[in-house]
Design a protein that fits this description.
By secondary structure, the protein is α+β, with helices and mostly antiparallel strands. About 35% of the residues lie in helices and about 20% in strands.
């Protein structure tokens, strides 16, 4: 093979390789954009489902686009607001506690008067068959929070029965429900402290 033919062959291979790289990059970019939209849509559906579990009833607004960011002991918290006729009737936000296996992340719905509409567990690492009874699919324990508030039971009774409170513990797994009870109580205290901001009733000039 002479030098001219070799150069032509090398140029063709370089061009072919470059074309393949461009086509591959374009395909990956298109796939990423397409799957990214699908992932965002799926995440929005999952979030709406989680919100609906602790926020029964019908509301006028889109909760996913009616939010406020507030500082809490656990860091910044996104508060989702549910309205009827423009008035905030309930809010939903996350709170977290510490169980046997680590962090337990909860989502809770609260009416404007501080009554719990519901609590659900978003994530945990508790022991299967023991601590996982905080999941509604495993037991009805989590429903014990429905209708509760900081005054019902009184603050000193917001504990498991082993600690002098009103909430059941699990046989062989007291740490898990204790962590959830404390997390929910802290969530109610967070609501009580920042109620005016959550409900959009903070007066101008207030801090």
């Amino acid at each position: 093979m002479n030098l001219a033919a070799l150069r032509a062959k090398l140029s063709y291979q370089t061009l072919l390789l470059g074309s393949v790289v461009l086509l591959t990059s374009g395909a990956l970019a298109l796939a990423s954009r397409t799957t990214g939209d699908d992932i965002q849509a799926a995440a929005a559906r999952d979030l709406k489902q989680s919100l609906s579990q602790v926020l029964p009833g019908q509301y006028d607004n889109d909760l996913l686009h009616d939010t406020i960011q507030l500082a809490s002991p656990d860091g910044d918290v996104t508060v989702y607001r549910a309205r009827r006729a423009g008035r905030v009737e309930a809010v939903v936000f996350q709170t977290a506690g510490h169980g046997y296996g680590g962090a337990i992340v909860c989502v809770m719905g609260v009416t404007r008067d501080g009554t719990l509409l519901g609590v659900r567990i978003l994530s945990h690492k508790e022991t299967p068959g023991l601590g996982d009874k905080i999941e509604p699919a495993k037991s009805r324990w989590i429903y014990a929070f429905d209708g509760k508030s900081l005054g019902d039971p009184p603050p000193d009774k917001w504990a498991v029965k082993k600690d002098g409170g009103v909430f059941d513990q699990f046989s062989g797994a007291t740490i898990t429900p204790r962590g959830v009870v404390r997390a929910v109580k802290r969530g109610l205290e967070f609501f009580a402290r920042d109620k005016a901001r959550m409900l959009g009733e903070m007066k101008e000039g207030s801090t």
